[in-house]
């Protein structure tokens, strides 16, 4: 049983190397995934994370992922294998729903909605709704001007002449001019490589303060998680409807807003805009500047007023004073929210988020200056590396039973930390890479440790199966080799056995015959030793050294040793009878057993170590075995063994021999001659009698 020290060192080195490989691989994959998430959110391909230390690993991973994602071009488009945006969207959606507190108040913005109730009200009066006559919008503007609305922004396309005649357009144009702060929408369109702007009908365009684009920043998974601040056409950057409305409400002219937005500023402050590429079919490739949406909450978080209330306030019991309280000094968005219009978008909150409320959300963000920011890339990298290290260390350090719940707690801590960062600093931490890295590290580390456990089990079985009973071996498999072999002081029992008369047999026979006889003898004895779960420490010539209580603790080690000694004598009696039938001389086996403290562990040189015991207890057991001949006994045990065996229920039949002095020990010890234990008896071959029944 040599080489324990080298084995321990190899195991430690293997664990360190495995931990390092898992951390490096997981961090590289996680960093690439972070780039993929950011690229996916902005509709752009992921960039290769470049760090000199991980250049080779990153290049290999990049090549692998690019192949999986589809570097093969079909129909002029690359196959997109990206899972990041949709996964991150769901996670951020849950986070935003938990956050739900972007603004202290939403009192500056009101939405006038053409909802289902308004359409039903119009139908009941035989007023067409597809499209609604612009004279009705003119009436809405008149009511809003009287109520003191500061700015009115229409999220309703008016790019063509009215179907109801020029008088319809004239009525709206006059109402807009009378108000003085009305905005209309425009739309960026792409034809091949050319980008154009679909502006309102000229009669209307000339009567309003300006027109802002209403293109949505839609990702490849059809989700809106950012608001368009500006879009670029052949003439430069055009502000969005929400940005233009916020600027006009603050007293800025449309030209000033346009210049500020072109410099990515608003009110003299930099905007945390992201370069965005539209992924919506029909608008794919349009360049935008966008900001992450800081949602006020689910749809309906702003104050909504049905348009029918403004068209007929008296009918709905609304007084002019009430309208003034609702709209005085407010920024008003007019948009369609009815199911028939289908002006809804998928957001982290829902699949039916009104488009007009997205424009209102952007305006509120600009007015309150509460913008969401992605955490700096270096911080994301550092956080992911910390999570990878922490997860790997945790899995390697704790029991498998606790690794999973602790890993789940760690993932929960990431979610809570992301929510805290969002609430405290308006930081957006991409969660998918963090959680995916934690799961990946846990899975790979657990798989490696399971492999290491199985390898350890094979190693223990191969190393110890010749020395211990199968039941003891399985207990040893569950323990670490270091705990089994580390030198320590233990309370255990040692059994020594030796054959009397075997020298005469060996001198008269060939070496092969002697070896065959010894093997037969050892086979019979080890079967008994295994039955009582003893550990065969070594064979010394024709003698056997057996340990009880080590390497696996056995509280009843003394009782086991005594029972094993008597059972070995019974097995020897059967073996002796077989030998006599083959004409062999009579063999006598004598056994000594002693219990006490001893040092157990891997002991030896660096090149060769043995798992053994040393100490006075071992010497006494060996001396007791040798005293059997002069005392006329087959099994001698010390008083210590006698008392320990009786304490654990062994029913001993033993004769006290008295105090004897063993060689190498100054103090005499009391010894007992064992005649039997429980229902086992020692054969009486010394006097020539047949074994006792």
UniProtKB/TrEMBL annotation:
EC number(s) per entry: 4.6.1.1
GO molecular function: adenylate cyclase activity
Transmembrane segments: 16-34, 378-396, 402-422, 434-453
InterPro entries hit by this protein: A/G_cyclase, Adenylyl/Guanylyl_Cyclase_3/4, CHASE2, Nucleotide_cyclase
GO annotation (BP), single: cAMP biosynthetic process
Signal peptide start-end: none
Keywords from the named record: Lyase, Membrane, Transmembrane, Transmembrane helix
Guanylate cyclase domain residues: 493-625
Protein's UniProt name: Adenylate cyclase 1
């Amino acid at each position: 049983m040599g080489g324990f020290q080298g084995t321990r060192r190899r195991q430690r080195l293997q664990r360190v190397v495995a931990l390092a490989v898992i951390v490096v691989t997981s961090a590289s994959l996680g960093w690439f995934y972070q780039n993929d998430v950011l690229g996916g959110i902005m509709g752009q391909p992921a960039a290769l994370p470049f760090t000199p230390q991980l250049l080779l690993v990153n290049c290999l991973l990049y090549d692998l992922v690019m192949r999986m994602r589809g570097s093969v071009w079909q129909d002029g488009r690359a196959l997109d294998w990206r899972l990041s945006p949709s996964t991150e969207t769901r996670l951020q959606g849950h986070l935003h729903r938990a956050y739900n507190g972007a603004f202290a108040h939403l009192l500056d913005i009101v939405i006038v909605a053409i909802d289902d109730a308004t359409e039903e009200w119009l139908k009941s009066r035989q007023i067409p709704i597809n499209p609604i006559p612009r004279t009705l919008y003119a009436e809405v503007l008149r009511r809003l001007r009287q109520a003191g609305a500061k700015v009115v922004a229409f999220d309703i396309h008016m790019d063509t002449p009215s179907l109801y005649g020029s008088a319809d357009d004239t009525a709206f144009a006059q109402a807009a001019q009378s108000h003085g702060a009305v905005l209309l929408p425009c739309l960026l369109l792409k034809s091949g490589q050319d980008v154009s702007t679909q502006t309102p009908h000229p009669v209307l365009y000339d009567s309003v303060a300006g027109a802002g684009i209403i293109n949505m920043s839609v990702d490849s998974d059809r989700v809106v998680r950012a608001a368009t601040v500006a879009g670029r056409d052949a003439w430069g950057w055009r502000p969005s409807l929400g940005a233009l409305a916020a600027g006009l409400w603050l007293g800025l002219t449309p030209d000033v807003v346009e210049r500020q937005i072109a410099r990515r500023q608003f009110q003299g402050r930099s905007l945390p805009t992201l370069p965005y590429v539209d992924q919506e079919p029909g608008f794919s490739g349009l360049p935008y500047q966008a900001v992450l949406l800081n949602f006020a909450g689910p749809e309906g978080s702003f104050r909504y007023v049905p348009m029918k209330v403004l068209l007929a306030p008296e009918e709905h019991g609304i007084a002019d004073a009430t309208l003034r309280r609702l709209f005085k000094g407010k920024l008003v968005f007019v948009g369609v929210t009815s199911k028939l219009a289908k002006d809804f978008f998928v957001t982290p909150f829902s699949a039916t988020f009104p488009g007009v409320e997205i424009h209102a959300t952007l305006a509120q963000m600009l007015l309150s200056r509460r913008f969401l920011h992605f955490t700096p890339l270096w911080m994301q990298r550092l956080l992911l590396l910390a999570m990878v290290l922490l997860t790997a260390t945790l899995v390697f350090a704790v029991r498998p039973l606790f690794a999973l719940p602790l890993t789940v707690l760690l993932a929960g801590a990431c979610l809570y930390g992301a929510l805290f960062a969002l609430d405290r600093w308006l930081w957006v931490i991409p969660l998918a890479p963090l959680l995916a890295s934690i799961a990946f590290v846990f899975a790979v580390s657990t798989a490696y440790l399971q492999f290491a456990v199985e390898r350890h089990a094979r190693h223990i079985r191969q190393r110890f199966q010749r020395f211990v009973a199968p039941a003891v071996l399985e207990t040893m498999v569950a323990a670490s080799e270091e705990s089994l072999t580390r030198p320590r002081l233990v309370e255990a029992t040692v059994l020594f056995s030796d054959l009397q008369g075997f020298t005469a047999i060996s001198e008269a026979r060939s070496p092969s015959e002697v070896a065959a006889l010894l093997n037969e003898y050892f086979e019979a004895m080890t079967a008994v030793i295994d039955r009582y779960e003893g550990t065969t420490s070594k064979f010394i010539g024709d003698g056997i050294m057996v340990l009880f209580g080590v390497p696996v603790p056995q509280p009843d080690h003394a009782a086991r040793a005594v029972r094993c000694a008597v059972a070995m004598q019974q097995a020897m009696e059967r073996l002796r009878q077989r030998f006599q039938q083959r004409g062999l001389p009579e063999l006598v086996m004598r056994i000594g057993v002693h219990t006490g403290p001893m040092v157990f562990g891997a002991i030896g040189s660096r090149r060769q170590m043995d798992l053994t015991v040393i100490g006075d207890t071992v010497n006494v057991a060996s001396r007791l075995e040798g005293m059997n001949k002069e005392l006329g006994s087959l099994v001698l045990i010390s008083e210590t063994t006698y008392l320990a065996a009786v304490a654990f229920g062994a029913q001993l039949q033993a004769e006290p021999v008295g105090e004897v002095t063993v060689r190498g020990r100054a103090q005499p010890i009391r010894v007992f001659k064992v005649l039997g234990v429980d229902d086992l008896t020692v054969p009486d071959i010394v006097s020539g009698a047949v074994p006792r029944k």
